Amino acid sequence: MSLAAEAFVSQIAAAEPWPENATLYQPLKEDQILLSDSASSLAVQTFLRMCGLPVLVSCRANAEYMSPSGKVPFIQVGNQVVSELGPIVQFTKAKGHSLSDGLDDVQRAEMKAYMELVNNMLLTAELYIQWCDDYTATEISRPRYSSPYSWPLNHILAYQKQWEVRRKMNVIGWSGKSLEQVYEDVSQCCQALSQRLGTQPYFFNKQPTELDALVFGHLFTILTTQLTNDELAEKVKSYTNLLSFCHRIEHTYFKDRGRINAA
Amino acid sequence: MYFNKNLLWVKVLSWRCALGCCCMHTNMAEPMELLCWGGDWDLPSVHSDSLIVLAYAKFSGAKLAVKSIDWTWRTITASVPQLHYEGSTVTEPAQILNFLRKQAEMKLYIQLYLLSATKSKMTPTCQKKIKTRITELEKGSPPCRFNADYELTAKQGADTMAYIALLEEKLRPALLHTFWVDAENYVNLTRPWFTSHSPFPLNFFVPGRQASLALSRILLTKAESPLLNITEVEGKIYSEAKECLNLLSHRLGNFHFFFGDTPTSLDAFVFGHIAPLIKAPLPSGQLQKHLNQLDNLCQFCNTILKNYFTDASAEKRMDCSLTAPHDPVDANLQKLTQLVNKESNLIEKMDDNLRSSPQHRHETKPSARASERNSPLLSKH
């Protein structure tokens, strides 16, 4: 969206309160959704729960194509559609709900920097492991991604997505990395997050912010998703304060649904 | 007897280290060679990544033989910046900084060991740990990390990683656009500069190739769907870049550097990214105008250029180091003595580094780790 369109949407957003029937769309949970999409979707759900905003989760096979930016998840609120955590945070802020109002400028800078760190390292590592590692791509990613479609569309779409992701990895310089290097990067990122969190309950001490939602979304999904091997989950498990952070958020915000069912 | 044997081992090691190690105090037999783009507009190099490495080398006192690739065939074959040392090659600013940091860390551990051998305040277990760490570093494993900057706390190391991710994600696309995709800048400034600094016939290919790489990077990472073209992405990347610059400015505040009074790797990264933007004579630079309004960032950049890159200050520092070679050594050893006297802090920190290194983790079972963390430092042999 161009800047003018964004400003226009914000103005309209500010006019109406949050409706009861806001819906979040994501790919099919049991068969189709992949690790990275599941992580992003959980992050958005956590954020909305932290704000106390009700949202219904709806699984659709074509969620990716419905989304205005091509990325999942996206939410439909009234007659507006917003995708990805960043724009959703701005959208909810325009409606008057914000988690990071209490932060001063330096803290806000830190929060944005850490969110970029998670996006840059964890999300890219997840995409790499799903699509650039041949074994995982063949066993898990391609079959799952194309499961709602029949032959030959499933082959075409799966390979198209794989080619797209590999091109992106090439351009940012990750295609030359080996799987061990990627695991090492994930470990570095987790170490940085663990050191920043320390012994506090949330990243900015007492109040959860969108950074907590994002980190929880990614770490919880990594811990509970079954991949071809457990190495990624082991990397995260070695940081005990991150594990207790995930437990705490799960118990605080998701206890009414029992355990979250991960794909 | 024990000490003599170990002293001899360390002396041999430090002799070998001195031959190749980057440090202010030893004479270099074979310096490290860095390939990078040449300089212009008051800068040592016009290329962001090369500037990052050059700045960090100056901060840490590493001696690098800088070789510019201008007017050579390397303009199209080499991925710049590149560090050559003892037959091995390191590329990418992050890897090069890790390498330089590893050399500096090795030197610190050796000096600490030497110190410990002469002063018996350190326990044998700590000495053994230091010796293990030196051997590990020499073998080249485990890899160093950003938060292994030993003068930073753990949290500051984590902040470094986060801010570097912020720079890469928000600022770099806009920089690439300003220099390589914006038509006015590209035709009037970037392309003529790179054409004039490449040999015939490469001058026809080099700028075009860099420009298409820049464009594809922006489109693949920032354009939300294949149908959007560059003009719609422009607004978004520039607004993100301006926000990023504002955030950096807030973080820097009134300080000289991002973490106190001494520059660190984060300062090198920020300098590498914003210096070309400040100094280049861009015909159409909305981002440059925005940056010029942020006084503290401009001040930061000029301070680094003045203190670390002008010839006058370099000569002054070189004179000092030649005439009084022992004073910096003594000062450093004094500093190390103070560190050793605060033994618990430093050894704990080094022990944390050891514990959190991936090689160490592979050797111990995950279930035993919790108890290990709580057990006293000295019980592990």
Automatic annotation (TrEMBL), chain A:
| Lyase recorded as keyword | no
- Keywords on this record? Acetylation, Membrane, Mitochondrion, Mitochondrion outer membrane, Protein transport, Transport
Supply one GO CC term from the record: SAM complex
* Principal location class: mitochondrion
Please indicate which superkingdom the organism of origin belongs to.
Answer: Eukaryota
Keyword Acetylation annotated: yes
Compartments where found: Mitochondrion outer membrane
Limits of the Metaxin glutathione S-transferase domain: 187-249
Please state every residue range assigned to the domain named Thioredoxin-like fold: 40-134
Q: Which Pfam families match?
A: GST_C_6 (PF17171), GST_N_4 (PF17172)
UniProt-listed GO biological process terms = mitochondrion organization; protein transport
In the record, the note on similarity to other proteins reads: Belongs to the metaxin family.
Q: What does this protein do?
A: Involved in transport of proteins into the mitochondrion.
Its quaternary organisation is: Interacts with MTX1/metaxin-1. Associates with the mitochondrial contact site and cristae organizing system (MICOS) complex, composed of at least MICOS10/MIC10, CHCHD3/MIC19, CHCHD6/MIC25, APOOL/MIC27, IMMT/MIC60, APOO/MIC23/MIC26 and QIL1/MIC13. This complex was also known under the names MINOS or MitOS complex. The MICOS complex associates with mitochondrial outer membrane proteins SAMM50, MTX1 and MTX2 (together described as components of the mitochondrial outer membrane sorting assembly machinery (SAM) complex) and DNAJC11, mitochondrial inner membrane protein TMEM11 and with HSPA9.
Q: What is this protein called?
A: Metaxin-2
- Species of origin: Cyprinus carpio carpio
From TrEMBL, chain B:
Q: Where in the cell is it found?
A: Mitochondrion outer membrane
* Top-rank taxon: Eukaryota
Is Protein transport one of the keywords UniProt gives this record?
yes
Q: Return any one Pfam family short name.
A: Tom37
What Gene Ontology cellular component terms go with this record?
Answer: SAM complex
- Principal localization? mitochondrion
Query: Can you give the residue ranges of the Metaxin glutathione S-transferase domain?
Result: 241-304
GO annotation (BP), single: mitochondrion organization
Query: Is this entry keyworded Mitochondrion?
Result: yes
Report the family membership.
Answer: Belongs to the metaxin family.
Recorded hits in PANTHER family, A to Z, give: METAXIN RELATED, METAXIN-3
Protein name as catalogued: Metaxin
